[in-house]
Specification:
single chain, Rossmann fold, alpha/beta, five-stranded mixed β-sheet, about 10% strand, 7 helices
Length: about 160
């Protein structure tokens, strides 16, 4: 499956979860790195000032990771609370992330490589899902956005950046 296919699968699962909880969703995507981060949000769907009630969820893919500075600047400029999948985006200035650590994923990948090199057939190996998810919160970014993160959420966070 391609990076785009994985991202689409994650977005559809997230969107379906939001629909079950009666939350309104609007999925927009970028298909080319030369497109500005804001281009996906321009058009008839949003009028001037409509970003005020918008929260952004960014699914990790190669395009997002390569352009993370631009994405973070866009969210900060338009004061959009953004949730990311990977923790390094929070260290770079994002508001919060909830997802697996890449170190864990790479460790599991090494396990699969080892098994295959020892003769296992890739089709016989089980497909694994992450078993541990991590919550990272950047309080500097929350303060810049004028947000107060509830204490109950801060207590559940694996790391709070102050």
């Amino acid at each position: 499956m391609s990076f785009r296919g994985i991202a689409r699968t994650k977005l559809l699962a997230w969107s379906n979860n939001c629909i079950r909880r009666s939350l309104k969703t609007c999925i927009r995507g970028r298909s080319h790195p030369s497109t500005s981060p804001g281009a996906a949000w321009r058009g008839r769907t949003f009028r001037e000032g409509a970003f005020m009630s918008l929260t952004l969820l960014l699914v990790a893919d190669a395009l997002t990771n390569l352009n993370r500075r631009r994405v973070l600047e866009f969210a900060a400029t338009h004061r959009i609370p953004a949730i990311y999948e990977l923790d390094f985006l929070v260290r770079d200035g994002g508001l919060m992330s909830y997802g697996q650590k890449l170190d864990d994923a790479f460790r599991r990948a090494a396990f699969y490589v080892d098994r295959i090199l020892k003769g296992a057939k890739p089709g016989d190996l089980p497909v694994e899902q992450p078993t541990r998810y991590y919550l990272f919160i950047n309080l500097k970014t929350a303060k810049a956005l004028g947000l107060t993160i509830p204490q109950t959420i801060l207590l559940r966070a694996d790391q709070v950046i102050e």
